Amino acid sequence: MGQNKHPMKIAMVSVFVEDPVKAFNHYTKVLGFEEVMFSPENYIAIVKSKLDSDGVMLLLEPTEPGGIEIAKTYKNKLYALGIPVISFSAENIYETTAELKAKGVLFKKDPVKTDFGYEAIFDDANGNYIQLLQLD
User: Fold this and answer.
1) Where are the beta strands (DSSP E) in 7-116?
2) pLDDT (mean) for 64-84
3) I need a labelling partner for 97 at 20 to 30 A (CA). Which of 78, 84, 86, 107 fits?
């Protein structure tokens, strides 16, 4: 075991969304991410945090139109169970929550203290719950 001689880092992760155009607008205009690539005619939307220029990119992966059935089922079942699909961090979870609520974001769970810091859960307006964390 031990360190790899050629380590890797996470470059991009996918979040399944119903409509990548709607999701792109929500993730950029409401949640504050910035565009990496947006090609609505090809159903491609990639965003990233403004706080980390070399950070992980987020592919807003479409389940519609004509999406993969298992992806739709997976996404819908996680949502029905109230399970977040990804976690975002905030320096001040209370201020971030207030700002997002002022923009109309719906929270399933307001910030609460946990063993690892603080946690809140909000709806991304595209059929996903997102966990918001502030780590101690």
Assistant:
1) 12-17, 34-39, 44-48, 57-62, 84-89, 107-113
2) 90
3) 78
